[in-house]
């Protein structure tokens, strides 16, 4: 069985509190990027475990720590599933803040439910995914949502960016989540993020911010230059996504955007 885990962008990201469990409470609007996908193949295999192989972009962790295997183990502990072979073909850049690894894990959960006829509910799968990674549950329903808590508390949001064009740029450098959080100072604001998002997109630049940007931009100034270049090319809103290192711009629809940014990863699509 083949699955195509897509990625996401964060529009606004507030780090509002440090939790007693060592995590942070956040507030962010997450939006699926439908066309930028990894490929995951899951097939039955002899035995009672999971064999994992990868191709495409190099995966920056040992196979036994890959989120795909964590997803398998999470289901195997609770449900009678047998052996599988998981092949991940990696296309979504890592260390980008695009949630590629989280999407892979969520699609493995959904795929195993289908492969073994478990018919798990969305709520059950979201609970399983929340234990795998902070934003993994988002990719179960895979629709725009306001995420709070660690990123696992999801509230569907009806804002539409249909007719806009999305441009994503990811340089060779990456930013780890640990690096980004190390310099963050949690803070609460009086104005809810959803209220800010209700304004026209052209006004988001004034109020919709990613709290990681000041920290990450100091260590990776190229990312700030890329964000500013998005505005120079006509973006109505531009930001780093997640904890970086991908930067995106939202443009009014029409012709494709000039994507010559040098030797970097570039992707664009019409938003739906």
TrEMBL record:
Active-site positions on this chain: 8, 135
The GHMP kinase N-terminal domain, residue ranges: 66-140
GO MF annotations, alphabetized: 4-(cytidine 5'-diphospho)-2-C-methyl-D-erythritol kinase activity
Catalytic activity: 4-CDP-2-C-methyl-D-erythritol + ATP = 4-CDP-2-C-methyl-D-erythritol 2-phosphate + ADP + H(+)
UniProt superkingdom: Bacteria
Alphabetical UniProt keywords: ATP-binding, Isoprene biosynthesis, Kinase, Nucleotide-binding, Transferase
Enzyme Commission number: 2.7.1.148
Known pathway: Isoprenoid biosynthesis; isopentenyl diphosphate biosynthesis via DXP pathway; isopentenyl diphosphate from 1-deoxy-D-xylulose 5-phosphate: step 3/6
Residues binding ATP, per UniProt: 93-103
Enzyme class label: transferase
Protein family: Belongs to the GHMP kinase family. IspE subfamily.
PANTHER family the record matches: 4-DIPHOSPHOCYTIDYL-2-C-METHYL-D-ERYTHRITOL KINASE, CHLOROPLASTIC
Name the UniProt record assigns to this protein: 4-diphosphocytidyl-2-C-methyl-D-erythritol kinase
């Amino acid at each position: 069985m083949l699955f195509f885990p897509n990625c996401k962008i964060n529009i606004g990201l507030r780090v509002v509190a440090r939790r007693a469990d060592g995590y942070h409470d956040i507030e962010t609007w997450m939006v699926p990027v439908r066309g930028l996908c990894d490929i995951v193949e899951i097939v039955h295999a002899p035995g009672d475990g999971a064999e994992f192989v990868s191709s495409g972009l190099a995966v920056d962790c040992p196979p036994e720590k890959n989120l795909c295997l964590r997803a398998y183990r999470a289901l195997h502990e609770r449900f009678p599933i047998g052996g599988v072979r998981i092949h991940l073909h990696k296309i979504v850049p890592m260390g980008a803040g695009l949630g590629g690894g989280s999407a892979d894990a969520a699609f493995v959960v959904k795929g195993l439910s289908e492969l073994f006829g478990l018919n798990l509910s969305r709520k059950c799968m979201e609970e399983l995914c929340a234990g795998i990674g902070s934003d993994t549950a988002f990719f179960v329903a895979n629709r725009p949502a306001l995420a709070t808590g660690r990123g696992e508390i999801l509230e569907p949001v009806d804002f539409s960016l249909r007719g806009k064009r999305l441009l994503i740029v990811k340089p060779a450098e990456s930013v780890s989540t640990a690096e980004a959080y190390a310099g963050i100072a949690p803070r609460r604001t009086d104005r809810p993020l959803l209220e800010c998002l209700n304004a026209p997109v052209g006004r988001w630049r004034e109020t919709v911010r990613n709290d990681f940007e000041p920290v990450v931009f100091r260590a990776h100034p190229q990312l700030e230059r890329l964000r500013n270049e998005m505005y120079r090319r006509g973006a109505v809103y531009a930001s780093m996504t997640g904890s970086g290192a991908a930067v995106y711009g939202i443009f009014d629809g029409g012709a494709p955007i000039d994507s010559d940014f040098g030797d970097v990863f570039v992707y664009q699509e019409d938003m739906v």
